[in-house]
User: Fold this.
Amino acid sequence: MAQASPVTAGAGSIAEEAARRRTFAIISHPDAGKTTLTEKLLLYGGQIAEAGAVHAKRNRKASTSDFMEIERKRGISVSSTVLRFEHREVVFNLLDTPGHRDFSEDTLRVLAAADAAVMLLDAAKGVEPQTLRLFEVARARGIPLLTFVNKYDRPGLEPLEMLDHIETVLQITPVASTWPVGIPGDFRGVVDRNTGVFHRFTRTAGGATEASEELLDAAAAHEREGDAWDVAQEELELPDHAGADFDAEGFASGRTTPVFFGSAVSNFGVGLLLEALETLAPSPRPQPVAGGDGARALDAPFSSLVFKVQANMDPRHRDRVAFMRVCSGVFERGMRATNARTGKPFALAYAHEVFGDERAVLDTAYPGDVVGVVNAADLRVGDTLYVGDAVEFPEIPTLAPEHFVTVRNRDTSRHKQFHRGIEQLAEEGVVHVLRRDPVADPNPVLAGVGPLQFEVAVDRLEREFGVTVGVDPARWTVARRTDAEGEAAIRRSGAGDVLYRRDGTPLAVFVDEWWLERFARDNPDVTLDRLLTR
Ligand code: G4P
Assistant:
């Protein structure tokens, strides 16, 4: 059964409470081991006494939350959006991200609420093409990235090959924080490059409890591991990333990433990763405000950013939950804030820490924490709530869609439900809803990064709004945000078409890159922006 968060009530000042928060996300390709690593972080964080492998995911839908999955299989307390745990005085907020590339936009939104991310790679596969987009999104956000190379207990790339691969594919400089001893498949442990200490691991049955770790100095490690130790030492002396020193500034700006080797399933290296999250990952900082005009101080009155809206999360609570990250001040349940978009007051009476099937009332939260606001019909992704001096945080960017379909309502008697459903999906950011005519379009165009988004949209329209829809593929594959001038130029050129977002912003859409490039060449002054903002 779900249980209330074990986090202790904050007793310190806002600055002290913010300083002990670490808000991060794990991004990875499905099957790289995110569920396992999350579970093991909980184990090492002292939240669960025993972990067991999460089984039978075959029937899992790509849109299902990984956290929900853990909760179902393990009966432990997790939320579908944020998992909060406290370890050695540090409060960790681990935000869930979908693993599939088609949901990269969700990842982008979650990263707007995270201060750091763990990039999780499979030792045998490295950065998989389908996931590249997720990592690019993280890189584009410029947030600090820690890399965990998982499944080192199995044959995979040599550590130096892995570092080269990361650098080539992601254009980020990897710097080894730990170095494996033993070859992939015969993994003995890792050297902590900070201390020079060898962490020698012993398997526990199924990795259920913390791996027993022996800490050995260089002489003892040489004695114990012989050649395997010497080879690791030689590799570490090479004047490349393996030998490079950690660069705090490069890490802070997302240009370099510290790399940790391990095996989540057998717990190897998980403790060191948790330690790094504590010591390297940044605590919440003053959040820059829209228009590049300074930042909201952490101890300013309460403010928050809505980064996710989800309706009907739980069939027993048919409502809409908005998740917001506290950016400044103290959140107190029952407080009245102002929504910067509408200028209207918003009462935060129904704020909860939302767990999969149970909601714990949340009374207080500090910068970095995530609050679920129930019955949040008026809140949208990107909204800023504040108390005191008015503030608005920058819009959360959205990605240029690459897939388009026209959606038709098959049951005209359910016209209202159809439009309400479409509106709901758009507000949650499930898909982009575009129109051929800025005012109204009976058959709107749904656009997204991947076709799975449409499957989710159609399924939800049917199940939640009782409407049967037909979808016809549309021929565009490229979209760019433009303006009135661009709109006119496209109509003149005939190189592409114009669709409109719900807020009236025109989008230039093209059949393929060739037509986009041709149009851009002929109209060099026209705005064609890849990142769409809502
Ligand atoms: P995901 O959430 O990223 O999709 O991955 P998940 O943790 O479910 O892990 C995917 C598979 O990889 C699981 O195997 C899991 O046991 C395995 N795995 C995770 N970490 C490691 C590791 O460090 N080493 C090895 N060798 N395997 C690892 P499965 O066969 O799909 O399920 P199960 O029956 O083993 O649970």
User: Anything to note?
Assistant: The longest strand covers residues 303-311.
